[in-house]
């Protein structure tokens, strides 16, 4: 169980997270949604201990330390790999550092994305770099896999196929926390939706519960954020009036 208790983070005068409490259990695939600046990346970095924060983060009741940090992995759009090394070099390094490194999964995902093993990562395209970042996070052997906008630069076909592959390879104890703006695209993939706004959790719903009420994920997100469907038409009307003014 990964548990966050009253997690708060400030950047100077800006409150990035405010008293966030959240529990993630084994086997969940959780979508973390919110506008730009909602606090999604900050939350993940606090969980990993990359940012100083207030509040507690525990794994099965224990603080996250060097002894259990390997149970967490992170796929970040900022990248955490060594650009001068090849995937083969990364495989050897991860194998030496993480006893639970999943070599078969690593090889299978490299083949799925058709990524060359002997090319330095710096020579990969932007999309390939993001693919490799995800491969490392999934192959580390972690129980909790955090992904922050992992599919930037990838085409819709690669993303759709990857969701299907991911559902097929995850084991019952593996939990995924996925931060993305592609809400409709992942609606058939996630089992739970957590919504952030202004650094606070404003929604938390299991997808099966939404389906029972006849509501889909996008409808739930719109209702929680009080989306105004006439927003575009009002903006266009105002812009047109300004252009028509003498």
Automatic annotation (TrEMBL):
Pfam families: ABC_tran. GO terms for molecular function: ATP binding; ATP hydrolysis activity. Residues 2-223 form the ABC transporter domain. PROSITE patterns: ABC_TRANSPORTER_2 (PS50893). The keyword S-adenosyl-L-methionine does not apply. Keywords: ATP-binding, Nucleotide-binding, Transport. SUPFAM superfamilies: P-loop containing nucleoside triphosphate hydrolases. This is ABC transporter ATP-binding protein.
